[in-house]
Amino acid sequence: MICSIDTNLFEDYASSVMELFDATDRLANLVGQHGPFEDERKYTEQVRGKCSAARLALEQHWAQHTCRGT
To answer: Does residue 43 form part of some domain?
Structure first.
């Protein structure tokens, strides 16, 4: 049986990983541009926190529900 909560949490995590990848890519392209780099760095840190929270929620669900994508 497919767990809809697991599916939603996994999709949230996957989306936040892609957002972090994009933010990190933009940050790398701003090296040497102090003002824009600092703004993007702050945004990237926020996205990293969001990504970490999404992963933690998924892992906690797996631990509590033991569905792990099934």
So the answer is: yes
Q: With a threshold of 0.90, does the pTM exceed it?
A: no
Residues 35-56: b if buried by 16+ CB within 10 A, e if exposed: eebeebeeebeebeebbeebbe
Q: Is position 70 within any domain? A: no
Render pLDDT for 21-51 as a digit per residue (tens, 0 to 9). Answer: 999 999 999 988 988 999 999 999 999 999 9
Please tell me the total count of domains within the chain. 1
Cα 40-41-46 angle, rounded to 5 deg: 95
Maximum Cα interatomic distance, the chain, rounded to a whole number of Å: 51
